[in-house]
Amino acid sequence: MYLYTILIIFVLNVLHCTGDCGCSNLNREKKCKIDEDETPSGKYSRELNDNINAFNTYNMVLINKDTFEMGTNKPVFESDHEGPVRNKTVESFYLDIYEVSNQNFKDFVEKTGYKTEAETYGDSFVFEMILPESERKEYQDVRAVQAPWWIKLKDISWLHPEGPHSTIENKLNHPVIHVSWNDAVKYCEFFNKRLPTEAEWEMACRAGLKQKLYPWGNKLNPKGKQWANIWQGNFPEENTAEDGYQFTSPVDEFPPNKFGLFNMAGNVWEWTQDDWLGDSESKVKKGGSFLCHESYCYRYRCAARSFNTKDTSAGNLGFRCAMDIQP
């Protein structure tokens, strides 16, 4: 049995950390300009604002009941419990086509006055490359011990994602980040939705493909195209951004899978409902992020998984919502 003790700044007692960009070790309590009306998220926001309480499946896809092969018999990270392959039956459900965007979350906050946990705590984790190189040395004492590229920075939130003075003005169609699992649940509940289960998420990622690595197949760049926003170059020193993005990309960027779902691999990690190894304070996340690279954090595969505590927020953590079939 594997024991994980999760880090905060200065303290880390961990049995498993290598190969996760330090992402699963980020937590608080445990030790260790776009025309928004023309974007999918802008249209999505208007539709939701018109009728929040109704059974509204706009910009969602219906995924029909099916039995699929979950997991893998060729795990990359044994301690993540990626396998074994097992048959899993999932009931019909709806899933958002896109990750929840800054515009979506902005609309939610304007309607509810909701305050995220990053805002309440007054800080969140950011990847060091968002800071000017000349400033990075100032934060030597507030770095994750075994993942020093993560900095716990004050006054970071979904509204100021890349520094206290940054804005989302030109990234309204990018996925919202610095949202905890608790924040994501509140958002989904407001729209009569919920987070997907891990099984739902993985079945949606695979889109009917049997035991393929990625949402589109086994080749990373078929037809010479970029299919996901992931790290390219030598992690964590250089991101060549061959996919066009050093950090997050728009929620409708890159080809969708066969279910019509965008960014099921890379861009931002996505929260799910499920507990991590029976720990109700830690939740499974899926999909990898723009920080993932095969040499270190090869978790943009459909079978891959990781976790964070429920109150964790970071610059590569987001979500999308699911919804039950209504009678």
From TrEMBL:
Residues 1-19 form the signal peptide. SUPFAM superfamilies: C-type lectin-like. GO terms for molecular function: formylglycine-generating oxidase activity. InterPro entries: CTDL_fold (IPR016187), Sulfatase_Mod_Factor_Kinase (IPR051043), SUMF_dom (IPR005532), SUMF_sf (IPR042095). It holds the Pfam family FGE-sulfatase. Residues 59-322 form the Sulfatase-modifying factor enzyme-like domain. One of its GO terms (cellular component) is endoplasmic reticulum. Keywords: Signal. Belongs to the sulfatase-modifying factor family. PANTHER family: FORMYLGLYCINE-GENERATING ENZYME, SULFATASE MODIFYING FACTOR 1, 2. This is Sulfatase-modifying factor enzyme-like domain-containing protein. The lineage of its organism: Eukaryota, Metazoa, Ecdysozoa, Arthropoda, Hexapoda.
